[in-house]
Amino acid sequence: MWQTLRALPRTVWLIGLISLVNDAASDLVYPLVPLYLTSVLMAGPRALGIIEGIAEATASLLKLVSGVWVDRARRTKPWIVAGYGLAGLARPLIAVVSSWPALLAIRFADRVGKGLRTSPRDALLAASVPPDRRGLAFGVHRAMDNAGAVIGPLLAAALLASGMPLRDVFLGTLVPAGVCLALAALLREPTRTAGQPTATGPSWNLAGWGALPATYRRYLAAVALFTLGNSSNMFLLLRAADLGLQQAQVPLLWAVVSAIAMALSAPLSGLSDRLGRRGLLVAGHLIYAAVYVALGLGTPTGWALYALFACYGVFLAATEGVEKALVADLAPVGLRGTAYGWYHMTAGLMLLPASMVFGALYEHVSVQAAFGFSAACALGAAGLLWRWVAPPDRSAPQERGSGT
């Protein structure tokens, strides 16, 4: 395993390091935004909902736009540099805002940056390795991304505990912004092979949808169904609090999830290179359904609750990188940016109705109905994946990675 990891090209590790630094800064800021909004800007939950709704919807749409354009321009680096640069410069400006509409503008800019960089980054990562190392590459990326998600909140807690004002914490994110830009400047474009198809002409109808293979479109249907039941993780933490978990232990509980996802993402995603991606995704969906059934129908406390959240971390490790690797497996080489754009937009846009439906069931029907709905969506998506999405032909000639 270690020898295989060392053999991964420079681009994989560079993209992973950029994501680690960027996510540490992002997750340092993100938990503090509600506190800043209420204690400094004197706004409430309604303003927070407007801000996050507009910001995330914008990011989802731009992931499609950037992905389609990457296939036409055949260049990924400018989008990646611009995306990380815009987000990195926006975060410190939170320190100088005096109203929630100004905060909305900054969060909008931050999510525009995410929308610009995500699909091109995934396309570059997929192009950097051969198909038999693709799962491992995306798993390493997710592991480093989750490492940032652990570091960020812990750093925020340490800075606040030391007495640093919120504004100074936000201003301090200029440092990781500069690091991300410097690292992104070191990225190299993948080597293009002669005769590689590009997204031109009719493929722009419906942003390239018609040019994508039928198997890939069926895969997106399974992704959409699963995401409909995959509501905000905040509901998991709310359920834990309802079950009696002390407020001080809530961040620790989520740290367990992120730590397990960080530790297992690379080995589980790498396993998909040998055993196939579809089976691992189905197994992950089954774990997700089991966790939601246990949380909805049972009353776990203490170590049982931590064990369930640990299983949720296993689900994340088994699916996050593998889902992205399967996108590259199913999409033509010259349409990978478009494929990642549709994948990210589908998952992003479905998150809004997912949380609305789950919240309505949780509040107006029952906890069991809410968690049961999510589990049913996961089981339905697992069935679609198994019966409807044919795995790629591994006997076909494989393109070589262009790792640097």
UniProtKB/TrEMBL annotation:
| Pfam annotation, one family | MFS_1
Top-level taxonomic group? Bacteria
* Presence of keyword Lipid metabolism: no
List the record's Gene Ontology CC terms alphabetically. Answer: membrane
Sequence ranges assigned to domain Major facilitator superfamily (MFS) profile in this UniProt record = 11-395
Q: List the keywords (alphabetical).
A: Membrane, Transmembrane, Transmembrane helix
**Compartment annotation:** Membrane
Residue stretches spanning the membrane: 12-33, 79-106, 169-187, 219-238, 250-268, 280-297, 303-322, 342-362, 368-390
UniProt GO molecular function: transmembrane transporter activity
Q: What is its main location?
A: membrane
Q: Which InterPro entries match?
A: MFS (IPR011701), MFS_dom (IPR020846), MFS_trans_sf (IPR036259), Sugar_transporter_CS (IPR005829)
Report membrane topology: Multi-pass membrane protein
Provide the protein name.
Multidrug resistance protein MdtG
- Gene encoding this polypeptide? mdtG
